Amino acid sequence: MGGGFGMEREWPDADLLSAINPAVVQVGLHRAVRGWQSPPRHAVQTDFDIWYVADGRGAVSVESAWHEFEAGDVITMPPGAICTGERGSQRDPFVVYFAHVLPFGRPDAERDAVLARHWPLRMSVRHRTGVLPVFEALFESWVLSGGRQSLQTRGLALQLLGILLGELSGETHPPVRMHRRVLAARQLIEENLAHPLSVREIAEHAGLSVSHLSALFNEHLGMPPNEYLLQARLREARVLLARGLSVKQTAHATGFSSQHYFSRLFRQRVGVPPTAFARGFTRDVAG
């Protein structure tokens, strides 16, 4: 790992932590396809590039050394780290939220270096159920603000850093391995977002009863399978709208038979109609 970041164990003092007042540089979402690999590059980080792996597997090359990751991991590349490539799994390609953040509001070489020495390139936060909702909210806020800094994005970035710094300081429980049948059920959902799936079909695929599947989803993912399926479809809908698909195309591609129902549900869950969400991303691209 370049620069030895993440190797120092003594935790930063309170003065440094109290100085954290993040600025958000960029937020995005990347859904890889099977076997995808980026072209070789030499990207030197100028901020903290923080990824959350929402689903799947892959690897990132930092200074030509490959580091594998999986769902529930956070990947962090601090200022000075050199990203030389990325690749997705052949069987289970990744979905990654990412945020470029300046923890102290601006580049601060001395403080950034201290923080980087305590921050590993990869850590599992599977047991931190609050990470994904914060990243989702940060992504939505960024898109709707036209890719500009706002009080909401700063607040969400601060919340995210609070969760991750709590993890790094040891304020957590040991990570748990996800049940293999939950993984099988989740993979079925992620690979069939455009098709109608019932909880019974998901349970049968995983070799479980509906009640056992629901209990395992609640234990490992913090929600029942029908809620996970809905959230996965809405997450994919945000990606497709951001890429420029129409509301009708997006509804069809995410398994909603009714465009009206999709629009109503999207507004209830996201807070804005899908047309407004798409317009926000268009402003971001145009700017």
Which key terms come to mind for this protein?
alpha+beta, Jelly Rolls, Arc Repressor Mutant, subunit A, 2 domains, four-stranded antiparallel sheet, 11 helices, disordered N terminus
Describe this structure in words.
With 287 residues, this protein is of the alpha+beta class. The chain has 2 domains: 12-168, Sandwich (Jelly Rolls); 180-286, Homeodomain-like (Arc Repressor Mutant, subunit A, Orthogonal Bundle), CATH 1.10.10.60. Helix content is 45%, strand content 19%. The chain has helices spanning 14-18, 109-117, 131-144, 151-168, 180-191, 199-206, 210-221, 225-242, 247-253, 259-270, 274-286, and strands spanning 23-31, 43-44, 48-55, 57-62, 65-70, 73-77, 82-88, 95-102, 122-124. The longest helix is centred in the middle third of the chain and has 18 residues, at 151-168. The radius of gyration is 19 Å and the shape is globular. The two termini are 35 Å apart.
Percent of residues in helical segments?
40-55%
Beta-strand content bin: 15-25%
What series of H and E elements makes up the topology? HEEEEEEEEHEHHHHHHHHH
Kindly name the structural category: alpha+beta
Question: Would you identify the CATH architecture of the largest domain?
Answer: Sandwich
According to CATH, the homologous superfamily of the largest domain is Regulatory protein AraC
Judging from the principal axes of the Cα atoms, what is the shape?
A: globular
Q: What is the CATH top level name of the largest domain?
A: Mainly Beta
Could you tell me the CATH topology label of the largest domain: Jelly Rolls
Q: Detail the poorly predicted runs.
A: 1-9, 282-287
Distance between the termini: 35 Å
Report the biggest beta sheet as strand number plus sense, adding barrel if it closes: 5 strands, antiparallel
Instruction: Compute the number of helices.
Output: 11
> What is the strand arrangement across the widest sheet?
1-8-3-6-9
Average of the residue pLDDT scores: 86
Number of strands: 9
